[in-house]
Automatic annotation (TrEMBL):
Pfam families: DUF1659
Domain of life, per lineage: Bacteria
Species this chain originates from: Macrococcus lamae
Protein name: DUF1659 domain-containing protein
InterPro entries: DUF1659
Residue ranges constituting the DUF1659 domain according to the UniProt record: 2-65
Length: 66
């Protein structure tokens, strides 16, 4: 049984002199259980406009009850 869905948006916060990327994420809990990939991408685009951060990935994390 599905217990919770969390959407994690990942962005690159910094690039070192050697070219290594530092990635950070913002997590949004209490999202709809039936969240689809197009909806997650649309949400990612809207949050990107609000925060000014360029998100490179969106991960849907599902927690299930065993």
């Amino acid at each position: 049984m599905l217990k919770e869905v969390v959407l994690s948006l990942i962005y690159i916060s910094d690039v070192s002199e050697s070219g290594k990327e530092t990635r950070k994420s913002r997590r949004f809990s209490q999202v709809r259980m039936d969240l689809t990939e197009p909806q997650a991408n649309s949400f990612k685009d809207l949050i990107s406009i609000l925060t000014g951060e360029d998100y490179v990935a969106a991960e849907k994390i599902e927690t299930k009850t065993v």
